[in-house]
Amino acid sequence: MWRQVVLAGLVGVLAAGATLASISPVSGVAGFGDVPEGRFYTEAVQWMVDNDITTGTSPTCFSPDDAVTRGQAAAFMWRMEGEPDAPPHPFTDINAAWQQEPVSWMYANGITTGTSSSTYSPNDVLTRGQLAALLHRLAGNPTASPHPFTDVVASWQQGPVSWMATTDPVITTGTSPTTFSPNEIVTRGQLATFFWRYKGKPTVSLDSASPYCGPVVSFGAGTHLIGSEIPATTYRAQPSSGCYWERLSGLSGESADRITNEFFYGSISSALVTISPSDVAFSSDADCGTWTNDLSPVTTSKTAPFGGGQYIVGVDIAAGIWRATGGDGCYWARLSGFSGESDDRIANDFTNEPPTVAIDANDVGFDADPDCGTWTKIG
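Now predict its structure.
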């Protein structure tokens, strides 16, 4: 039996002393692989995602250190305010369709007058001083006590920066206790943070199931060095017949070098593994086929029936109640990650009866062998 072999193998691996904390299938949070936990913008980006304010610079990247243009800032602010309608703007340099309504709304509500009577300059980068003015106008130009920054000298920036520095919750603490740096560019991470604070710092729940942000990497059978040959992240393969892989802490060939391993039999739709940066190498046989960090769905929809394999909850399959047709020796597991280690198993079972499983939205993955048959969502 497929899982009986794997579970027996895990005992030997753990006895050898190779232990690693369970890790999520990706390096980032908030839906993007380049948004780490614990950064000043982490919660803000999650809030933007939750409220459909951003879809990132790609499906897997947010690019928090990239500069924000005036056109992008208009779109973000417009989405934050619920995408209200407005009469057309007077600017002749707004050509992108996605900028038309945001800039029209900003102009109609006195948030911007453009860079001239006929131009908005949507491709110019936004400065911190300009963003302060835009947010201040959005808030209705409230008065505030003077700010403490010595580098804010333009008269049109005084009220906005004072308000940002003294409102509750505070929107800015400056770039130092005495500087605001009004002429520096605003990054996407900073803009997200300013907007999130403007809205009162709403509580968010970080999404840990975030895809890898970077170039698509593919590799086949053999032993591959982590870092120099392949990056540490989550990979997917679609084996045609069986698959054996190992995460390695060394290259001696001895059993002590195996951090963990897994063997699949038969035809499965998806095999997944998360490689840690501390791993030395990853090895797999030819039956695994091609591994890739492209984690696009392998199912036709999240609620479509599926067979044996490992699946990402929220990407391949939806949370809910699923039932399989069953068979002799059905093994399934709800997973908190794809490291292949025992700590990743939230719950599992081995049964000869048709199983019914409630997959939670907080689960990272679901694992079922081919003997379970076809899984159908029933609730």
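Residues 1-26 have pLDDT under 50 and may be disordered.
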